[in-house]
Write a structure and sequence with these properties.
Elements lengths: L1 E5 L2 E10 L2 E10 L22 E3 L31 E6 L7 E7 L17 H7 L2 E5 L4 H5 L3 H4 L9 H16 L5 E11 L1 H10 L10 E5 L9 H14 L15 H16 L22 H7 L6 E7 L4 H5 L9 H12 L7 H12 L5 H28 L7 E6 L18 H5 L5 H7 L5 H17 L17 E5 L4 E4 L3 H10 L6
Parallel strand pairs: 2-4, 6-7, 6-8, 8-9, 9-10, 10-11, 11-12
Antiparallel strand pairs: 1-2, 2-3, 3-5, 5-7, 12-13
Helix pairs in contact: 5-8, 6-7, 8-12, 10-12, 11-16, 12-16
């Protein structure tokens, strides 16, 4: 057992061996008061210091959520509770000596599911190999984290649609106050996350309250463009109220409805949206034009907010393959081009320009894409790759005023699962970063064939970036993004390419140019 005294109170953790290194682990530490009762749908309240010694040898509950359907292969069921879900886990090689770089992980899950206790996010191996203090946080999900109630409930609920992000900010404040006791450097904090976790980081970059809370950011398959306007969020809230059997005059009953009833309505809303979109339904998103997020994040980044933060951002080559391969076609291959055009239209590409996308993809592939291939690429580009490119362009503009360093990557190692159909799919990068290629949760995708050398290179690069702001490490000579759009291609043989798939980027710049500053 390991006992520590921190500004928040005394904690008791445990120690374990991680690849020959002793790691001290503290699980389920509350960073905010329970978001239940009078705190439901309200901004987080900092956790009060506790008396005595807090037992931190077991993970705390996840935020309330419905089971994933289908559940990811190898995933373990999550235990959730509205009480105590705002907790964090810490792994550290030592609690003394000079302060170590701190890496704070924000999990993904479409803002609907996920937990810091998921096996894939166990930070022991990464902390051991990299010599960092690793923190993993929970935050409110779904309706409890994003329901827009400003117009319905008034004072005190003006920011109810951004509670998940406010939770993350509160966790980062807790880290700043307490992490030195765990051997971390509070002035050298890197936030990193994947999918919705990376989208959250992109949004944090555009929130004025985030300034000074982290020095660096890593976005894996993320975006700064996942948000709604207040009128759009109000429509979602009205639909959700109806599914709860409520309306505007009775909206206050949301404050006392059982969590299970909220989750039932949430599941029904997800089903409604799933019938209308081919990609992953995203019923709950942050809302701009609110106190904590006054303007779209990309606009804030373009204007220079958090310009001193070093940024590492990238995507996987086949981000859309799960959506295509795990969902049967309605009428065979001829339906795919129409679906691809609908996906492009949802991202602001006029239907008249859809053929231009196909032509750009043809030039990249040096052949005509098949129907499935076209749809998968359209999802990958509209949801992940091109939003990342627009963020990189905005950073280039901000760099004129002395911004932090910017680095880019493209992950291309192909999973052997399903006969290779998934390719470099969404979330495949996670076990490489956390050094869990052999984990049960990774087995479906890695099949024992993933190169350990690539995991060593990626985890080393992520750690080097957290320590110094530069991902160059043993075996990886990684230049900044710059005018050449230098991008590290992460595969069996990692290499730098200038502007990979640039024909597609140019197409999107033609139909969705970055606004002038």
């Amino acid at each position: 057992m390991t006992r520590l005294s921190t500004p928040a109170g005394s904690v008791r953790g445990s120690s374990l061996d991680a690849d020959g290194t002793t790691i001290h682990r503290f699980l389920g530490i509350p960073y905010a008061a329970p978001p239940s009762g009078a705190n439901r749908f309200r901004p987080p309240v900092p956790a009060a210091p506790w008396a005595g010694v807090l037992d931190c040898t077991a993970a705390g509950p996840a935020a309330p959520q419905n089971p994933e359907n289908p559940a990811p292969p190898g995933a373990r069921p999550r235990t959730w509770s509205e009480e105590g879900c705002l907790n964090l886990n810490i792994w550290t090689p030592a609690t003394d000596g000079p302060g170590r770089p701190v890496m704070v992980w924000i999990h993904g899950g479409a803002y609907l599911s996920g937990a810091n206790s998921d096996g894939m996010y166990d930070g022991a191996r990464l902390a051991a190999a990299a010599g960092v203090v690793l923190v993993s946080i929970n935050y409110r999900l779904g309706a409890l984290g994003f329901l827009h109630l400003a117009d319905l409930l008034g004072q005190g609920y003006e920011d109810s649609s951004n509670l998940a992000l406010l939770d993350q900010l509160e966790a980062l404040r807790w880290v700043r106050r307490n992490i030195a006791a765990f051997g971390g450097d509070p002035d050298n904090v890197t936030v990193f996350g994947e999918s919705a976790g990376a989208a959250a980081i992109g949004t944090l970059l555009g929130m004025p309250a985030s300034e000074g809370l982290f020095r660096r950011a890593i976005m894996q398959s993320g975006t700064v463009e996942r948000y709604r306007r207040p009128e759009e969020s109000a429509r979602v809230s009205a639909g959700f109220l109806g599914l709860c059997g409520l309306d505007g005059p009775t909206a206050k009953e949301l404050l006392t409805l059982p969590v299970e009833r909220l989750l039932e309505a949430q599941a029904a809303l997800e089903r409604q949206l799933a019938a209308k979109t081919f990609a992953v339904p995203l019923p709950f998103q942050p809302t701009v034009g609110t106190p904590s997020l006054p303007v779209p994040p990309l606009d804030s980044v373009h204007a220079g907010l958090n310009s001193g933060v070093d940024l590492l951002i990238g995507t996987n080559l086949n981000e859309g393959s799960f959506a295509v391969e795990m969902r049967p076609a309605a009428a065979g291959d001829p339906d795919y081009p129409d679906r691809a055009a609908a996906v492009l239209a949802s991202a602001g590409v006029p239907s008249a320009d859809a053929s231009g996308y196909t032509e750009a993809l043809t030039r990249v592939l040096s052949r005509q894409p098949g129907g499935k291939e076209l749809l998968e690429a359209a999802i990958a580009d509209t949801v992940y790759r091109q939003p990342s490119n627009r963020l990189l362009a905005a950073r280039q503009e901000a760099a004129r005023n002395g911004a932090g360093k910017t680095f880019a990557y493209l992950f291309t190692w192909r999973s052997p699962a399903m006969g290779g159909k998934l390719g470099a799919c969404h979330a495949l990068d996670i076990p490489f970063v956390f050094r869990h290629l052999d984990a049960p949760e990774a087995a479906f995708l890695t099949r024992g064939m993933a190169p350990q050398s690539l995991s060593d290179a990626m985890s080393g690069a992520w750690a080097a970036f957290a320590a110094t702001g530069n991902p160059a490490s043993a075996g990886l000579d990684w230049p900044g993004f710059g005018a050449a759009r230098s991008t590290m291609v992460l595969d069996d043989n990692a290499r730098v390419e200038e502007d990979p798939r640039g024909e597609i980027r140019e197409f999107f710049e033609g139909v969705r140019p970055l606004p002038a500053r």
